[in-house]
Specification:
The chain contains 5 helices and 24 strands. With about 400 residues, it is α+β, with helices and mostly antiparallel strands.
Length: about 400
């Protein structure tokens, strides 16, 4: 019995020794396997991590990571390169993206990570005014459409404020929206909103506004004539003096870029009625008795108006040098020298004897302008047809 127990103990010890030896061998093998791995930095599409591997070359390393290498992919070093400690492997997967520019649309393969990298890869330079969609910092995705709109210079005139700008717009409407220009219902744009925006062109925004203004203005009276058989022909007599009235007018004024371009009357209110001037015109024929001393000369009918020394554009001195300011009682008429020579003595119905001593820009042909010192009397003279006699 004692011997049997001793044998059992010895058998158990042997089993423990064998098991311990097997564990030791396995541990030594595992340690040896792990310590013989290479430490490699693997960069996959911009994301880095450090791994341990028994791969002999780069291709085996990628296969370990279930990475299928394509011909368009970027890989450094090459797939046949030997794996060593501290090796860095960079792999970027190629993807197809669409590139749209003003000149063309094309599909390209790229390993760029961001839109900005892609544009540099395609040798496309962009400035601060160019438009890139999506943004340059966007991560590039398979099938993405990258649009590049190059900016061009042009001029914006907004209500008279002119500035040079850059734009990527195709139409005037889009350009104004891009520039933050808001239009009112009355504003005009040249060229039209649907027109194309041209490089080095100009877009004009005409700011239109309508305002109202109330003004009190004089109301001119009319001159009414009536025949009087008791007055000699050619003479006149004021029966009722004319008086100006007063009217209040409300105007609608249209302005473009702050300047008035038109106005129209919205409402008119009479404040004071005008009084028309009534003038009696003599119609009695004058019977002249011929005498040895009677003056003779050429008679013609002319249209006669009146002027003063202080009329608009008048200097106060006649064409022949008569100072009308100094001689308010002078009897002077302005004539067309081709009809009535300057210096001629004339007799004017309703005015009397006078000297043709002046000219006028509007005095052409059978027209004369009689000098009357008083502005009111000149208005009362009005415009009439008279007979004159050129005495010399």
């Amino acid at each position: 019995m004692k011997n049997l127990f001793s044998k059992l103990v010895n058998t158990k010890k042997l089993s423990i020794i064998i098991a311990s030896f097997i564990v030791l061998l396995f541990s030594a093998g595992f340690i040896t396997y792990e310590t013989t791995k290479h430490s490699v930095t693997l960069s996959l599409d911009g994301k880095e991590r450090v791994i341990k591997t028994h791969a002999t070359n780069v291709q085996e390393l990628l296969e370990e990571k279930n990475i299928s290498l394509q011909s368009k992919d970027y890989l450094f070093p090459s797939k046949n390169s030997r794996v060593t400690d501290n090796l860095k492997v960079v792999w970027k997967s190629a993807k197809q993206v669409k590139l749209s520019t003003v000149n063309e649309d094309k599909t390209v393969w790229t390993t760029a990570v961001t839109v900005d990298e892609f544009l540099k890869e395609q040798s496309i330079e962009v400035n601060e005014f160019d438009q890139v969609k999506p943004k340059s910092s966007t991560i590039l995705q398979k099938g993405m459409n990258v649009v590049v709109n190059k900016a061009f210079p042009l001029t914006l005139n907004d209500g008279g404020v002119v500035k040079d700008v850059w734009s990527t717009s195709t139409t005037v409407a889009d350009f104004l929206h891009q520039q933050g220009v808001t239009l009112t219902e009355l504003d005009r744009v040249e060229p039209g909103l649907d027109s194309a925006v041209l490089e080095n062109g100009m877009v004009n925004v005409i700011r239109v506004e309508k305002v109202t203004d109330v003004v009190e203005e004089p109301l001119s009276f009319a001159v009414v004539t009536q025949k009087d058989e008791n007055l000699d022909k050619g003479s006149e007599k004021i029966l009722t003096p004319g008086q100006e009235g007063l009217v209040s007018r409300e105007y609608e004024i249209t302005k473009e870029n702050g300047q008035e371009v038109s106005r129209s009357v919205l409402k008119e209110t009479i404040i004071k009625d005008k009084v028309d001037q009534v003038v009696a015109v003599g119609s009695k024929e004058i019977v002249q008795v011929a005498s040895r001393g009677a003056e003779s000369g050429r008679e013609i009918y002319v249209t006669a108006t009146a002027y003063t020394a202080s009329c608009s554009g008048c200097s106060g001195t006649t064409a022949t040098g008569v100072n009308l300011h100094a001689n308010p009682g002078a009897k002077v008429i302005a004539v067309d020298p081709s009809v009535i020579p300057l210096g001629s003595k004339v007799y004017v119905e309703g005015y009397g004897y006078a000297i043709a001593a002046d000219t006028g820009g509007a005095i052409k042909g059978n027209k004369i302008d009689v000098f009357i010192a008083s502005k009111q009397d000149a208005y009362q003279w009005g415009r009439k047809t008279v007979k004159i006699k050129i005495l010399n």
